[in-house]
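Quick one: structure for this chain?
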Amino acid sequence: MQQPVLRQGEAPIPELQRQEFREMLLRELEGNERQVVEEYYFRGNSLKEIAQDLGVTSSRVSEICAGAMARLRKRFSAFCKSRTGS
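Got it. Here's what it folds into:
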């Protein structure tokens, strides 16, 4: 896994918390979903580049990404509700 780079003036603790949060999110995904989210959101690759790596179309990568994000939103919403007691 690529190591995060600290921004100037940034404390290491918040960066570690972000890294742990990222890893927690990615653990919620499987296979292609994890790869697409990591490549697109954390490594900055384009949908076209990811599609070439996976051997699928860009529109399929977009569908995978949308499904992954919907899954993460649902999971995060449930997590927040359990923390607030709602």
